[in-house]
Amino acid sequence: MKVLIVTGLSGAGKSSVVKALEDIGFYTIDNLPPNLMVDFIKLIRHTGEAIDEVAFVIDLRSGKLFDELDKSIREVKKKVDEIEILFLEASDSAILQRYKESRRSHPHSVDGTILDGIALEREKLAPIREKSDYLVDTSQMNIHQLRERIVSTFDSKDHSRIEVVLQSFGYKKGIPMDADMVFDLRFLPNPFYDEDLRDLSGLDQPVRDFIMKDERSRKMLNKIEEMLDFLMPHFAKEGKNRTVIALGCTGGRHRSVTFVVLLEEILAEKGYKVSGIHRDFKEIG
User: Fold this and answer.
1) Domain that holds residue 224
2) Per-residue pLDDT reduced to its tens digit, 79-88
3) Which of these three, 130, 154, 178, is where a domain ends?
4) What is the rounded CA–CA span in Å between residue 88 and residue 21?
5) 146 in Cβ contact with 137 (< 8 Å)
6) Which of 40, 62, 214, 260 is most open to solvent, judged by the fewest CB atoms within 10 Å of its CB?
7) Is a pLDDT exceeding 60 seen at residue 285?
8) pTM score
9) Residues 246 and 133 in one domain
10) Does one domain contain both 21 and 145?
């Protein structure tokens, strides 16, 4: 198990970091008293949960319990394979501006100004800052840049192959609401008008042969494949781990099903986790 302790100044971006860590598979717990870290790790192992990466957000909100952080870190080191500390900070002016924009009060400026609260935090967090493995200054970062920094630093998994869901549908019943991309295949040859093929579907080879013998069908399939080859790595880089591609024809039985079947084979060969579903056609048997 890997443990990451996220700490730092209020307003430096800890909430954004938590979201980014969750996106790449970390189990995150915010505002945990330091002395409960070991208990949580024991609980995970007792329940048999398959959790390999845990991030604890610990800062001065813990009050006097924060003083036990050093001792708690030593105890955690005995229980896990790896423990690291990420410290987030920003300039006084950047933090001041963020609090003004959010219209929130600084948690440690109860009896003073925001700058007084920042100064208090810097002083109390100085020891853990010196021991941090990663020091990130977010003064000039927006939330997207911060997320990219976190993902590039802590994502140990290969997300170059995201999950792809291919969905066939018929325009007669409307476009799927959950689709990220929609391709209209109604311009392709329609087996419905062939009496020998009408009662079959895109799951049947004769239907696929009929559709794909047309040059337009082959070109369309190639162009969709090329587009996905271009888009998928960029989607993955932005943290998208699943995309739904809807392919539609008039009834959702012949052309759309054919393209789902063929694209599923193509993407599987490229190493993608891919699944095909047919919204408006159910296979019999």
Assistant:
1) 163-278
2) 888 899 999 9
3) 154
4) 14
5) no
6) 214
7) no
8) 0.59
9) no
10) yes
